[in-house]
Amino acid sequence: xxxxxxxRTPLRTPVRFEDAQNVGTLLAGSRSAETRRSYASAMxxxxxxxxxxxxxxxxxxxxxxASYIAHRAEQVAHSxxxxxxxxxxxxxxxxxxxxxxxxxxxxQALRSAGRTLGTAPCRRAAPLTTTLMRQIIDAMEDLExxxxxxxxxxxxxxxxxxxxxxxxxxxxxxxxxxxxxxxLLRIRRSKTDQTGRGDLIGIPLGAHPETCPVLAxxxxxxxxxxxxxDGTPVFSRIYNHSRIANAALSDRSIARIIQARAAxxxxxxxxxxxxxxxxxxxxxxxxxxxxxxxxxxxxxxDPMTISRTTRHRRLDSLARYVRPANAFEDSTAGKIGL
Length: 338
Hints:
- By secondary structure, this protein is mainly alpha-helical.
- It contains 15 helices and 7 strands.
- A 3-stranded antiparallel sheet has the order 2-3-4, with no helix packed on it.
- Keywords: DNA recombination, DNA-binding.
């Protein structure tokens, strides 16, 4: 057989321990922390299922993965199954094994599950619109405390800039600049910007002092002793309602604050499910971002303009918020003479 067509296995060249460590550190950052947590959870569930049936989990074959898809199709949504398959794929590739999820039978099983279950989401974050935000702010009885000032700033900055909870948590005072018209806010990295290209968002002064994000942030900075440009985290923990820590809040803490403040105002988000056409809606860390898109759509702002603030790369992703708000304006039913 000609050497030109022989299957070649690349030679492995030993590298120094410190070089291997550097490569390991580099590869550890190839996925976001949230993705790593999600994949780890998916693999724990898959491994437990495999152990119960005597199947190997890593490495495993496409027959096992297809069987797991059939099993999960009786329990969870298609989006969860897709996440499971992505986690199994990543675990195999990361460990140098063939990817069982690339097999035609596995792809067919996943598509079949999508047809059976439907690919539309069954759950969605309820939008905290401007109207609901006023209700939340009005219900806050601790606005003169450090905790109240911090939470109001989180809510209003997050809504104004259409931020994800991770983006709010990652903000430092170096990311914000004060201008005569308001604030310039730089989002250094996001879910759709993993390489850190960055986006710049303008936050104008609000029309109402009680819900002005610029004034809310300034009040919190003054209470916390921070100043723009000093490099500290914008939002941090507060101990005993008075002692302000230096460490940044986690993204999960941001979500809990949003949920707690909405609940205190009597807002659960459950009543949005019928409008959204899904089985379940609730207030989450994504509700501020959803609220910005929905509020802008209700005011007649076109989707392209909204996407420049929300930073949606695809308009069909934005449409899930815009369509319910513009359902009557977009409909031609009123223009056909009925």
